[in-house]
Design goal:
The protein is built from 15 helices and 21 strands. It is α/β, with parallel strands linked by helices. The strands form 7 sheets. The chain has a 7-stranded mixed β-sheet with strand order 2-21-11-1-10-8-9, sandwiched between helices. The protein has a 4-stranded antiparallel β-sheet with strand order 14-15-17-16. Strands 3-20 form a two-stranded antiparallel sheet. It is globular and about 60 Å long. It comes from Pseudonocardia parietis. This is AlkP superfamily pyrophosphatase or phosphodiesterase.
């Protein structure tokens, strides 16, 4: 059994936006929120990509403002603990098995879709796999805007029309930014004026430096300090009656035990497509080969991974409830890496395979994120 299965039945990242809307008096339905937040006129959610609960606790001296906020969490993020899944869960308020974004790379209608670039290799798939059809459920932002909430997303300029934004975070006004300075300005202007107002802000650089250098390294810590400074300035400038929440989309580990699937014949036999990422793999078998592929991956990875069939992963709740329409997107074999192990693809994924920092699996270091609140 994995170290930590997502707590889909209690409180996950998917519950954050509905709870914030409840706090500003604009609930999406009559159900009580998963956790109680202080009432407010307006709410800001700042999502710091790669801000894991364990990492923040370990490096709290570098982020005294963040560490000093009330932590309503920790929350689990869902599986795989990777940005496309987490942001779509956040944006839709749904578990992965319902919204259907199920991996960094996962099979959709025969294509191995890279959900970050909405592509296959260099081929843009936004017309072939229309994001609004791949993920057709209405988002929380759409529903809130339709109910009269002034909704704003503040995120990098280049993500405005990305497949991931269109799929999981569509709705409301999008304000594209280039750095921390305009991120702060757009957040603050988004909560100015009469309520109710909801602003979602996204910052990517902590995750970027964690991948490039490893979480907890000097470069990563300096970035955390910058985020802490940003937060201190926001707290000084936010209008009265504004609730500020900060969370992450996953944690991260530094990998030191690697298996290269592109150089290991036992991990290639019977495999039609290999998706996921180095810490969480979807293995799509050729017809009739699923049992042999499962046995080969279990034998090869041994204690470095939890290796299960699709049916086992679904029955054990790795993805939460799974809709029939997305069942085929899950690998015939699902692999979650243990400890600090990884399954790389140095030939097919050279850039991704070069990173010391990785995430995606079912360990507390990757699954747990804080939910820090100031009102």
């Amino acid at each position: 059994m994995p170290d930590l299965l997502p707590r889909y039945d209690t409180a996950t990242l998917a519950d954050v936006l509905p709870a914030l809307l409840h706090a500003i008096g604009a609930p999406l339905d009559h159900r009580a929120p998963a956790f109680a937040l202080p009432p407010a006129r307006a709410a800001v959610l700042l999502l710091v990509d790669g801000l894991g609960h364990d990492l923040l606790r370990e490096h709290r001296a570098d982020a005294p403002v963040l560490a000093g906020l009330a932590d309503v969490g920790p929350l689990t993020v869902g599986f795989p603990s990777t940005t496309p899944i987490s942001l779509t869960s956040l944006g839709t308020g749904l578990p992965p098995g319902v919204h259907g974004t199920l991996g960094l790379k996962f099979r959709v209608d025969g294509h191995l879709l890279d959900a970050l670039g909405w592509s296959a290799g260099r081929k843009d798939l936004r017309e072939t796999l229309v994001p609004e059809q791949v993920q057709p459920e209405p988002t929380v932002l759409e529903r809130a805007a339709a109910a009269g909430v002034a909704v704003r997303s503040v995120s990098p300029l280049e993500f405005r029309k990305s497949g991931l934004t269109r799929s999981g975070l569509r709705g409301g006004e999008y304000r594209g930014v280039a750095a921390l300075g305009d991120l702060a300005v757009e957040i603050l202007s988004g909560v100015a004026g009469p309520g109710p107002r909801l602003v979602y802000g996204y910052h990517a650089d902590l995750d970027k430096l964690g991948h490039l250098y490893g979480p907890g390294t000097p470069a990563w810590r300096w970035q955390l300090r910058q985020i802490d400074t940003l937060l201190a300035m926001l707290l000084e400038a936010l209008p009265a009656g504004t609730l500020l929440a900060v969370t992450g989309d996953h944690g991260m580990v530094t990998v030191d035990r690697v298996t290269d699937a592109d150089a290991e014949p036992a991990l290639q036999d019977g495999v039609a497509l290999l998706g996921g990422d180095p810490r969480a793999r979807h293995v799509y078998a050729r017809p009739g080969a699923a049992d042999d592929v499962l046995a080969a991956w279990r034998a090869t990875l041994g204690d470095d991974a939890w290796v299960v069939s699709r049916d086992e992963a679904v029955a054990d709740g790795w993805f939460g409830p799974v809709e029939d329409r997305v069942l085929d997107r899950i690998g015939d074999v699902v692999v979650a890496l243990r400890g600090t192990a990884a399954v790389l693809r140095r030939e097919a994924e050279p850039f991704l395979s070069s990173f010391p920092g990785q995430h995606g699996s079912l360990t507390p270091a990757e699954q747990l994120v804080p939910l820090l609140v100031h009102s």
